[in-house]
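Can't paste images in this forum, so I'm doing it all in text. The chain is below; anyone willing to post the predicted structure tokens underneath?
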Amino acid sequence: MIILNRFAGQVKYYNEFEDPMPSPFETNHDGMFVPDFFYVSLVDADFDNENHHPYYDAVEAVKVKEFYGLEEDNEVFAAHYTDYPYDITYAAAFAFEYNLNPAAEYAVLVWDGGYFDEFDDGDWTEDGTFGVLGKSWTWYNWSPPGSDAVNATDVLLIYDMVENNPLNMSHIVPPNYDDGNVLYGSGAPGWYAANFNISVADVNASVLDNPGQPITDLDALLTSRRVIGAIEKFPNNKPNFSVAGIFVDGVDFNTNHIFGDLDKPYPSYFFYQGNDNYNWSTLAKEHYYKQDLQEIVGWQDEGMRYLNIYYNSVGDINSSYRPLYGEWKGDSDVQLLVKGMINVSIGEEITIPLSITDHAHFGAISLGIDYRNDLVEITGTSFGDDAHFDNDTGLLRVAWASLDGAHYEAGSDIAYITVRLLDHVDPETELFTLNAFTEFADTKAMVVEGVELSTVALSTDPVSVEDPDASTINVASFPNPFDYTTTIRYELPENAEVQMVVYNNMGQIVKTLVDEDQAAGVHEVQVSSTDLMGPGIYYYRLLVNGVHNTYSATNSMMLIK
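Text version of the structure:
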């Protein structure tokens, strides 16, 4: 058998590893986990979603198989490669049997079935949940909790795109491509890569309204709000993924084509949305990504072609996501140590500092914190709108980014978390753990390795001055809020070296109020509005090195206009 015009391929994620997309994957169908698949369909050029079904009305539609390589799967390959080894498997691959007509026009679709079953009608069941986007992998797995898919580093890169200076954008834009306007250049391969970059960064789908400059600060803001969980989906029916593709030579699908060697090809065309609707209840068969292949390659050239289709999470500018078949990376590379203890009572509200061990300058801060919501509830953080917490799930996320960055001295506080104690705890109780969302990057969007954070333990156990583990001390300000001056009062249980420092909400030092030896007893220090940097919330931390013990306490005050 001679193959005249056929193609096969693989569905991958657009990262440096070209990880295969999980197909099949398990999806929750009314409490029962069943296999679901990506599909690739070859259709006539006149195919449209209103009148045609991507499976039943296709010239040929095939499942993307988790491992393509069984003997019965390889008729296409074996017919073209007489020495094709059947023991080689290709992840997330597909192959068409159909011989393309060189004189005809075709399009190719890729779609997530949402538990579509080709043996049924692929439509609604009586409960209206069968085959909808809400049952699909691409709906739920944009940025799964505990993953490092999209975070503040991506927000920083979007801010940088607004400034037309893509910095470390080699994952999307070829680093050797520059026509004076990298983001919006023309000509291959940079034009395609740059426009794919725009599709990934344009989270509010404004490119049609503003093609000259579709990427704005609003895209960065919306990305930050979504990665922390403050909004559920992007506006204007923007889907969770953008899709691009490239034809490559050879059957070795596992070769890395888009990263590393600059001579290797980048994606050369885009799949556009086949349906503008992107809601939970949209039928999966009605939401696909489409590309007219006739515009890309002349089918009059006979032979076997290999198509790589790449998904990229919208907002994942540095393409760091790794969809490892549901095995999400759950641990953080950042260390969180416990240093010191604060004695508290059930029902008491207390502010806990999060400190950094070494000095650093960050352009992006991503904090993912799982906390014991059975023991504490969070009532606020120093990051304001850049943070979101859910006491029902016990998850806190922070996504902060700035092109100017923020500098932190060794031992300074980078965040404050205010909690209310719900039940008894002891110093050994681990209240907070960092998950894989946690990441720090510099102003060039390069990940900062080796970051070490520390916090304090809470305990409801009674302590005494002679207790070597005691570190509790009370400190408060009045009035609070204040407009001109406020007084901070604290009581020392013993003679000690005392330091009190005021920080802004980013943990940067504003003023040192006390730095001296003081006697045991009650002390007061006044803070004036002129000591601070304008209206807002400030945090003050008291450190006491006594003869018997070391104490610490943190609290907040608000300056109003």
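Residues 161 and 215 are 7 Å apart (CA to CA). Residues 190-201 form the longest helix (12 residues).
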